[in-house]
Amino acid sequence: MIVTMTSLLTTAQLLLVSVTLFHGALSQGSPIDLIVFNSLENTNITYSTTIADRGIVLGAMRRLQDAHSFKFNTTEYPDYGYFLVSVNGLPGSQKDRTSWELLSESKNGTIIRPDVGVGCYIPKPGERIILKFTKY
User: Fold this and answer.
1) Looking at beta carbons, which pairs linking 23-29 to residues 24 or more positions away fall under 8 Å?
2) Which H/E stretch holds residue 63?
3) CATH code linked to domain 29-135
4) pLDDT tens-place string over residues 31-48
5) Where are the chain's structural domains?
6) Which Gene3D superfamilies match (predicted)?
7) The pTM is what?
8) 124 secondary structure, DSSP code
């Protein structure tokens, strides 16, 4: 009986420590810049927030939406994940052949187009995320 109680207390303490460490990692986060770039009007807005260690871009975007005037809408495709529909009230359009694309700029200035969307992309520390409105 004493061994069982000791085991239960030890398990409970480990869970408490794990949850505390996990929550601490989430609340710390790494700074991230998110740039909304309209290539048709050559305008941009930069937002700064944090992203959890190994967190996805969508989480940072939701944090910005809750705290700033940043707004976005997505649609989810079960096989492919989330796609940006509009950012700050500007939607992509099949008729106008416009859309939003996700880009990432590394510390050395190299810009890439990730092969996944905002719901899956995990930026590295120091990357800048670019949401680019463009024609296709």
Assistant:
1) 25/52, 25/53, 26/52, 26/53, 26/55, 28/53, 29/53, 29/55
2) helix 57-67
3) 2.170.130.30
4) 999 999 999 999 999 999
5) 29-135
6) 2.170.130.30
7) 0.77
8) P
